[in-house]
């Protein structure tokens, strides 16, 4: 049985699987750590 056939025959299953994937995606997005301003060492050149 193909995914398209399964989705047509059992639309509730397709909706539940879609919602499950969305919830997993939102939980994963919440756990991402993004630093707004990372520590960057700016190179300095001195001319004497």
UniProtKB/TrEMBL annotation:
Signal peptide from the UniProt entry: none
Keywords: Membrane, Transmembrane, Transmembrane helix
Chain ranges passing through the membrane: 12-29
GO-annotated cellular components: plasma membrane
Pfam families the record matches: ACR_tran
MF GO annotations: xenobiotic transmembrane transporter activity
InterPro entries: Acrflvin-R (IPR001036)
Record's keyword annotation contains Cytoplasm: no
PANTHER family with a match to the protein in the record: BLL4319 PROTEIN (PTHR32063:SF14), PTHR32063
Record protein name field: Efflux RND transporter permease subunit
Lineage summary: unclassified sequences, metagenomes, ecological metagenomes
